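PT: before anyone asks, these are the final sequences, not the draft ones from last week. 591 residues across everything. Please model them as a single complex and drop the result in this thread when it's through.
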Amino acid sequence: MSGETESKLSQLFAQLPEPDSELTERALVRALAALPTRPRSSERRARAFAFVLAAVVALLAASAGALAAVGALHVSFGQATHRSPRSVVSSAAQLTVPAGSGGIAATVDGRLWLTTASGLRLQGLPVTAAALSPHALYVAVGIGHSLVAMAPNGRRAWSYTAPGSVSAIAWAPDGLRIAYIVNARGRFRLYAIEGNGRHSRLLDTAVRSTRPTWRADSLALAYVSAGGRPVIFDFAHDAHVLVSSAAARDAVFLAFAPRGDQLAIATRHSVLVNGRALPAAFRDNGVAGLGWVDGNLAVALNGRVSSVFVFRFGRAGPLSHVVRLVQPARIEALDAWDSRLTLALAADSGVRVLVDRPATGSRSQVVLQLPPRSAVGTVATR
Amino acid sequence: MRAYVNTPKVVACDRESGGRDADWPVLRTRLGGVRERSDRDLVRAARRGDRDAAAALFRRYWPTAWRAALAFTGRQAAADDVASDAFERAFAALDRFDEHRPFAPWLYRIVANRALDLLRAERRLSGVEPVEPVDAGPDHRAGDRGLLAAVGALALERRTVVLLRYGVGMTPKEIAAALDLPVGTVNSRLARSLEQLREYFEVQGVGRD
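LR: through. Structure below.
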């Protein structure tokens, strides 16, 4: 019987379907792109020279150390209080929950770092997308084609096989729906699924992978069409509404206000709210992020100086900025929730994720430090 | 004994495994004696930046690696991710690969580990072991699909050795080397898995034509 079972198994596996030819070609392209690049001969010579130089320096250092040890040489390496960039990176803290919030998450180099006040901690889980629910009660992650939700306290969770690799996720403010974008054979599609993992529904077959944003009442969401135009999907009427402003073409960030229906739209060099451009010149600066904090609009800009401008809105439209937070490094990502701004800043010394509360004027809290050139995907505090 | 080895002599395809010979990494003759390059040659050339050699290596192992990933995960979509990611990692690590060892078990080990990572991540996040029926091929009968589902229901450790043994065709010794396990552990897992599947046969009557 055992031999029969073995034979049966071998036959069964041999009859499994063949991989799709289109997928095969895409996988081949990806695999070839991963091949190690060979250094040119001149580079190899340079490396050999550098190696010899390093060996000589090490030899000299060892000699100096020996002399210093016997008191023949006094050695000093700068001020005692100085922290080298390397020591900052090596002391990289684990992601810490900002005071008063439910949890914080960051995706870096395709891996998720997550800590919640309820005690859940994920460090370096490979993901394609991730999003915290309001107040960090749940987390939804995309692991390739799987959309997985879990309760940090271990209560009910679910896993759903999406029709493509999940590339962006956004929870509705009421937590009852999740919008997610999948990459299905090179085309991005927008879906919405109920918070219990059931009734996934296709909303648009051609979108960009920009993360959608939900209106405060959770009955509409805005996303970017494949052509770069903002579109609002209204669940109450099952209707798509195209934002017709010509200035809103090639939108890169969208953010509904936490109250009401104000929609902020950022292109690379301008920001519009309900169709009106903000009174600020972004021409020489690139918009790096968009969000609402304390009911005001926060816009992150990278230029000669990186800053976060906070605009207050009155009845007659937006006033000029009320707060400008100058940042010491390039802004890689911004997230705003309630009264908190979460920023990812990249400098030569490393990448830092920090949380700021503009209204209080208190000092920023660094919640994660990462090595230089870490690629930050998204950050979020809930 | 199946041949992963990159010996220069031409050997015959192993047809005992039933229909998998087209993908099997043996040396074959084609077009009146034109000899295929060995894995070792292709690896060496790929390391030097020869993309054609790397592509040949990919095409030689992609179908088996993908089907192994499918058998592991049970879902074609997940198999796409796992197999593609495994090849990316393998090619990125080609400089660190010991070319004196056979390429195939090394690759399949990466496939297995990526599949296990995915399944464990899903289990870790959802709290349950994802047991899903394998996306079977059109040729599979209902009984076959049931057996595939039974394989999918095996514990991860057992499923791994069963798939590497009967899906990929590795010997227990090769599996042991790939998974850093004693050969005895591999053999005992195989025996227990077969016993479990045999019980499934008895209950379902599968495989008794």
